[in-house]
Amino acid sequence: MVLEEAWTLKELFVYPNEYIYWSIQIVMYPFMTGLVAGAFVLSSLYHLFGIQRLKDIARFSLVFSFALLFVAPLPLLFHLLQPQRNYYVFMTPHFTSAIAAFGVVFFVYASIVASELWFLYRKYFVETSLKLKNQMSRSLPEKIKYLVCTVLTLGAYDIDESTLRKDQSAIKILAGVGVPVACFLHGYAGFIFGSVKANALWMTPLMPVIFIMSAIVSGVALCMLTYIIAMEIKKFVASRKRPFPPYPSQEEIKGVEVHVVKMTSRYLIFFLIFSISLELLDLAFRGYTAVKSWDILRSIIYGKDFINIFILQYTLGNLLPFILLLIPGLTIRRAVPSLILVLFGVFMMRWNVVIGGQSFSLTFSGYLHYHLPLIPYDYETFKEGLFGALLIGALPFFLFWALSKIFPVFDLKESH
Amino acid sequence: MNRRGFLKLSVKGLAGIALAKGLDEIVRPQEGLAAAKPVRWVFLVDTYKCIGCGFCVKACKLENGIPYEANVSRTWVERYVITKDGQVFADTPKAARDGFTTTRIDLGMGKYREIKKEEIGKAFFVPKICNQCDKPPCVQVCPVGATYQTADGVSLVDRKWCIGCGYCIMACPYGMRFFHPVYQVAEKCNFCYHRITKGINPACVLACPMSARRIGNIKNPEDPVAKVIMTQRVEVHKPEYGTNPQVYFIGLSEEVR
Q1: What is the end-to-end Cα distance of chain B in Å, rounded?
Q2: Which of A24, A72, B66, B113 could form a disulfide with A32 if both were Cys (CB 3.0 to 4.6 A apart)?
Q3: Is A301 an 8 Å CB contact of chain B?
Q4: Mean pLDDT taken over chain B
């Protein structure tokens, strides 16, 4: 009769109303916003600091960040028991609540990414629009493309040298403003948890910082992974179209790919070290100060969640990919499993925070066990189950595919 | 209309609006009433008197329309058994809706523990109810303002405005909140606000055969509950969270969670 009974089991002394109220969708929420923030920070490393080696992946990451952005609020929406009332957050935001800021932060961030994208691809829109305009006859896809590009020029057809230079500085400013906003977007997701004083595991001022660092790690890893997949598809296409001269050869693509992956993985390792250090600092501090809640936290961290935390998150998700990425002579074949492991590690970190934080009772003398609904038997067990999470996880890739039809994400000619 | 006429009318209009607003500030009926007869609802639980019959839970469920079989409740009773060697056992089967009908301690997951009489050092019951905190964390974290604190100190939920995010449930250190199984919005004890504002006792207070539960107005020095709180030694639950709870206990023990 109580919805949460579908996935909660209670052990020892637990208050009657305690259940795992925040389940898999709330695990997905910080995971997805983390990817958004991480992808944006990666693209800003090029746009803001002019790290030329990241040029290739920078444009790609920005478009991907945009695709992820639309999916980020969906887990929250999915999780609401009254999803039709979601706009109340914008209508009557109650600003003492961390969640109330969501609307403001989200829209500020979305407009920054959208305008940066516009400045970045303006030249392309104008050129495409003009080219297709002068074309005598247009096929249906060309007609659509013409329409989309013409609308996206927003009536600004001025693309001479000085205007493009202005565009460049606008991109730089937007990237500069965007980084703190992206960090805020995700840091505040950490704040949502870190500020809950009733929860002994969540409450730490380190939470937002830990979230930002692991967000960057996951965003960079996902961008690299998607980049590799996209390049492999390119290679496959190239092997078939090779006789046509404008197409780059397989070797050319591979050269670019390996170079980009090597460069980006250095930044990934850098942020990974930061992220792990902060998490271990948090753990060490809790153990050393050993306040009232430590007894039950210890039994969770070193007992019930040992496999989730130390085996799956730290060993498989952090240590192993760290070693794999550090061994010299990084190959694509080695990078792919490492990146998947990094993503898995960050996901497990979100899991261990969200689910782990609810797996002990407010009484400090009882436990709650979470069982993810695998096979759904109604709408609730679908959206709060495995398939609901997979749906949310898959959506950005569809969106990215659609966006890549509008924005030339993989412009090899330019990047070479 | 000429310019002069328009300006005149505008000034009059603005003056009218300002006057109306000012009057509203000056004579607010609710505040006028509150000032004349200040009310701050508080609760007094005498744990020595509680016998664990569970009538309060039953009455609460019926009065407030909480599905009888659902494993959630606005109030509950906890049983504590402390053995002579210092082990603490506690349970609240079905929120003690049916009282404590067996001496076995419910350990959850279908397990029970029988404790021999001669092993027991002390044992007692503790009724729990929303603390109607002075600084309610549940109200603080609600993203839409659907939960709010009234002038007389009770935290309420607007069922028409709650979006069901569950942040308030996470924020309460006492585990008082839950989702209503029928309305699918946040739910909590409100001291039977619909009754106390009409001068009737809450359902649980009325149902308690031992007068272990009492409600009062701390701002009225003549109130018997206020007198007890002011003159005797009382305790609140989990004061370390800084919520300033307003349910006072007599005989709260160190073992109480």
Answers
A1: 74
A2: A72
A3: no
A4: 93
Q: Is B257 in CB contact (< 8 Å) with chain A? A: yes
Residue A331 per-residue DSSP state: -
A291 in contact with B, Cβ within 8 Å: no
| Mean pLDDT of chain A, nearest integer | 89
User: Which among B66, B200, B43 has a CA at the least distance from the CA of B128?
Assistant: B43
In this complex, the residue of B73, B109, B176 whose CB is nearest that of residue A11 is: B109
Query: Would you say A59 and A47 are in contact if contact means Cβ atoms under 8 Å apart?
Result: no
- pLDDT tens track for A191-247: 999 999 999 999 999 999 999 999 999 999 999 998 898 888 888 887 776 656 566
pLDDT over 70 at B36, yes or no: no
Q: Does B228 touch chain A (CB under 8 A)?
A: no
SS3 B163: coil
- Domain range annotation of chain B: 137-187
Task: Look at residue A412 in the predicted model and tell me its pLDDT.
Answer: 46
Measure the N-to-C terminal CA separation of chain A; round to a whole number of Å.
Answer: 61
Is B90–A363 a contact, with Cβ atoms under 8 angstroms apart? yes
Rounded CA gap, B61 and B114, in Å?
29
Q: Where are the domains of chain A?
A: 24-354+372-415
User: Pick the residue with more confidence: A271 or A60?
Assistant: A271
pTM for the full model? 0.89
- The closest of A350, A268, A354 to A312, measured between CA atoms, is A350
User: Who contacts A56 (Cβ-Cβ below 8 Å, separation ≥6)?
Assistant: A256, A260, A415
pLDDT confidence tier of residue A46, bands split at 50, 70 and 90 = confident
Pinpoint the alpha helices (H) of A135-248.
140-152, 161-194, 207-241
Contacts of A3 in chain B (CB under 8 A): 179, 181
Q: Is the minimum CB–CB distance between B143 and chain A shorter than 8 Å?
A: yes
Residues in B closer than 8 angstroms to A192, CB to CB, are: 167
Kindly report the CATH class assigned to B137-187: alpha beta
Q: Is the dihedral of CA B240, B241, B247, B253 positive or negative?
A: negative
Going from the C-alpha of A284 to that of each of A175, A287, A289, the distances in angstroms are: 36, 5, 9
Q: What phi, psi does A91 have (nearest 5°)?
A: -75, -50
> Regarding beta strands B247-250 and B41-46, do their DSSP bridges make them parallel or antiparallel, or are they unpaired?
parallel
Spatial contact of B64 and B74, defined as CB atoms under 8 Å apart: yes
Q: What is the DSSP string of A247-293?
A: SPPHHHHHHHHHHHHHHHHHHHHHHHHHHHHHHHHHHHHHHHH--TT
Arithmetic mean of pLDDT, B66-84 = 97
Alpha helices in A72-136 (DSSP H): 74-79, 88-91, 102-134
CA distance B192 to chain A (A): 18
For the four alpha carbons of B31, B36, B37 and B39, in that order, the dihedral sign comes to: positive
Query: Are the C-beta atoms of residues A85 and B163 closer than 8 Å to each other?
Result: yes
